[in-house]
Automatic annotation (TrEMBL):
The protein, known as: DUF465 domain-containing protein
Keyword Coiled coil: yes
Record organism: Roseisalinus antarcticus
Lineage start: Bacteria, Pseudomonadati, Pseudomonadota, Alphaproteobacteria, Rhodobacterales
Record keywords, A-Z: Coiled coil
Pfam families: DUF465
Length: 73
């Protein structure tokens, strides 16, 4: 893969990472809003949102690993 194609692929990954981070923040905000409603809030919905948030966290970590070059000391 030439340098130009590698840079373009890296830019796409950085943009995707930004989108995933925003989705993660949005889920966090939604979870907090539901929890503030009190104990009568939808526990199953909160659980589902937390699971989605964890999945996003894993995807973010995987993308960060792809973007950050391995440094051998």
């Amino acid at each position: 893969m030439n340098t130009s194609a590698r840079m373009e692929q890296l830019e796409v990954l950085v943009i995707e990472l930004g989108v995933l981070r925003q989705q993660h923040r949005d889920l966090d905000d939604a979870i907090h809003a539901l929890q503030e409603k009190g104990p009568s809030s939808d526990v199953l919905t909160i659980r589902r949102l937390k699971k989605q948030k964890l999945h996003l966290k894993d995807r973010i970590a995987a993308l960060e690993d792809r973007i950050t070059p391995d440094i051998i000391a």
